[in-house]
Design brief:
heterodimer, A: alpha/beta, six-stranded mixed β-sheet, four-stranded antiparallel β-sheet, 10 strands, 32% helix, 29% strand, globular, B: alpha+beta, 2 domains, twelve-stranded mixed β-sheet, two-stranded antiparallel sheet, 55% helix
Chain lengths: 231, 386
């Protein structure tokens, strides 16, 4: 598989007061296109930080993040925002939907950054909601939907602009088992059927089993735990 | 959906808060609009003044009279095209509360220097020819129900006749209008008719109106007149008609300063309330702003959206307030008798335009800090707090 991401000698350090905290040091990894990786590890191991670096919402202290030949870490804020809108879909633990917007409007949000016409946007939103099985809930506001349904709306929002990669931060962390399985099956479908590259941070070993690979981040190093999906 | 949808939905996400904020802005602009309309009426004299008209008054102040002879001497000054005079009668009809602004004038010369007063030709001739004639402005005639041919008494709360009475009998022989916005809320009669019966202060006049040959000559004419009467028992002060009107209005206090204080207080309060509320509202949405930035909304676009939200709120409140002010002013102006005392009371276009400008400014001022805060939201920090 062709490589989508190349991370080289990636280091991330935070300063808290006079104290300097190293999250990881000289991390090097490659993420092939079409991969589905579950990143696990203890709290504070830097899973979310790594996801943020991959998504271009945080910058490394040193090293490089390259996506399809683009040095993401070198892009200006404006270019980075544009890059994110075109290449990355984000799925958060707490869904982070806009409470004032309907499901369809939430899904349409990333398309406001494109030059698509209203009709084209509407068609794309319908397709995305159909993929996640919520075509009949397009007029509902987030508070009228269950947690699982809200997360599916969030997935539709993440895929509507057709990004190559989906970055999921504990996507099932706030859901019951049944809803979590539905979400994970949807992610698996997006990976297998639509070829989306998925990087998922999770604490949940059973969630990680849906991924093609499990990586354990510990003390700034990766330990690969599984090479093939179990389910 | 577009940015405007997002702005509108965010603005009205907490309906009670949005309604209360809109109401507070509405009240400020209602005050602004209504006071602006009254201020315009108050200052209409200055606004309607002709460029080449001067007014000479006694240097002590305009309530102190000067000799009638000054009129003749002023007419001979170089640069004077025409001159007339008037004296304040302080009239009322039947009851002191039924005031009628009335001036004793020399009809022919007065109408000559005030072409803004519109008379039917035969009524103009009748006014000039008939020494007991009272020429009445349309607003006053309508208010008191007077018509041509009526004989009415007007009493003065200043002047007395030699027989001890303060009542003059007049025949209404002319009803005049004002051209465009020129007021027609007063009455005029022959100076001679009034002067010959005066018990005191005979042959004295209140002010002289001078029409210069051109506005360029105003300064030299004014200087010549005031020099001519320097060191006399009644020294003069000559100013443009606009300055005289402004001075007349200001005898009741500095209306502009009072209005500025009232409107300024209202707006300062609104600025603080709306400003703080907007900051709080945006702080509550830090997480949502972080998500929008994550999705790829650039910081300048978020800045514009938050600022637009504030401007939209201010414009909604402002336009509603100005609209309500327009309605109130229109209702007041239509009330019986108002046009006689507040001629031309209406919502001036410039007050409306200034109001809209002020609404935009208020929106920008109250929105700038929240917009900067929103623009600066750090995605990682904001999402990390969830």
């Amino acid at each position: 598989m062709a490589s989508l991401y190349e991370l080289k000698d990636l280091s991330k350090r935070y300063t808290r007061g006079k104290e300097s905290i190293t999250i990881f040091e000289e991390l090097t990894m490659s993420i092939p296109q079409g991969d589905f990786i579950a990143i696990m590890g203890p709290s504070g191991s830097g899973k979310t930080t790594l996801l943020n670096l991959l998504g271009g919402i945080d910058r490394p202290s040193s090293g490089s993040v390259e996506c399809e030949g683009v040095r993401v870490d070198k892009l200006s804020e404006g270019k980075l925002a544009k890059w994110r809108s075109q290449h990355v879909g984000f799925i958060f633990q707490f869904y982070n939907l806009m409470p004032t917007l309907t499901a369809a409007q939430n899904v349409e949000l990333p398309l406001l950054l494109t030059k698509l016409s209203g009709k084209q946007r509407k068609d794309r939103v319908a397709t995305a909601l159909d993929i996640v099985g919520l075509a009949d809930r397009k007029g509902h506001r987030p508070r009228q939907l269950s947690g699982g349904q809200q997360q599916r709306v969030a997935i539709a929002r993440a895929i509507v602009a057709d990004p190559k990669v989906l970055l999921c931060d504990e996507p099932t962390g706030d859901l019951d088992r049944a809803s979590a399985d539905e979400i994970l099956e949807t992610l698996q479908l997006l990976n297998k059927e639509l070829g989306k590259t998925i990087v998922m941070v999770t604490h949940d070993p059973s969630a990680a089993k849906y991924a093609a690979r499990e990586l354990h981040l510990d003390k700034g190093r990766f330990i690969e735990a599984k090479a093939e999906p179990a389910q | 959906m577009n940015d405007l949808t997002l702005i509108r939905k965010n603005l009205f996400r907490k309906k009670l808060r949005a309604i209360l904020l809109t109401l507070s802005i509405l009240i400020a602009f209602l005050i602004f609009g209504v006071l602006g309309a009254f201020y315009k009426v108050w200052n209409s004299g200055a606004e309607l003044a002709a460029d080449n008209r001067l007014v000479t008054v006694n240097r002590i102040n305009f309530t102190v009279t000067m000799p009638y002879a000054y009129w003749g001497r002023i007419q001979a000054v170089e640069g004077v095209e025409a001159a007339s005079f008037a004296n304040w009668f302080g009239g009322y009809y039947q009851e002191p509360t039924r005031q009628v602004q009335t001036f004793a004038v020399d009809p022919e010369s007065y109408l000559n220097v005030y072409p803004e007063l519109v008379f039917e030709p035969e009524q103009r001739a009748a006014f000039i020819a008939n020494r007991t004639c009272l020429a009445v402005g349309r607003d006053i005639a309508d208010f008191y129900g007077w018509s041509l041919g009526d004989r009415i008494p007007l009493l003065s709360n200043i002047w007395q006749k030699s027989d001890g009475s303060s009542s003059w009998e007049f025949d209404i022989c002319a009803v005049f209008d004002g051209r465009e916005d020129y007021p027609a809320n007063y009455a005029m009669f022959h100076y001679e008719y009034y002067n010959e019966d005066l018990a005191f202060n005979q042959d004295q006049i209140g002010w002289i109106v001078i029409q210069t040959q051109s506005a360029d000559m105003n300064a030299s004419v004014a200087d010549t007149i005031d020099t001519m009467f320097a060191n006399s028992p009644a020294e003069t002060e000559t100013a443009t008609e606009a300055a005289f009107s402004e001075g007349f209005a200001n005898q009741f206090g500095n209306i502009a300063l009072i209005l500025l204080f009232v409107v300024g207080s209202a707006f300062s309060t609104i600025l603080i309330i709306v400003g703080f509320t907007m900051v709080t509202a945006i702080n509550e949405r830090t997480g949502e702003i972080a998500v929008m930035k994550t999705l790829g909304f650039p910081a300048p676009r978020i800045f514009r959206m938050v600022l637009s939200e504030s401007v939209m709120l201010s414009l909604v409140g402002g336009l509603l307030g100005l609209g309500l002010a327009w309605g109130m002013v229109t209702l007041i102006a239509a009330a019986p008798g108002v046009s006689a005392f507040l001629p031309g009371l209406s919502m001036p276009q410039n007050v409306f335009i200034a109001g809209v400008g002020l609404a935009v400014l208020l929106g920008l001022l109250t929105g700038i800090i929240p917009a900067i805060n929103a623009q600066r939201v750090k995605i990682v920090t904001a999402l990390g707090k969830q």
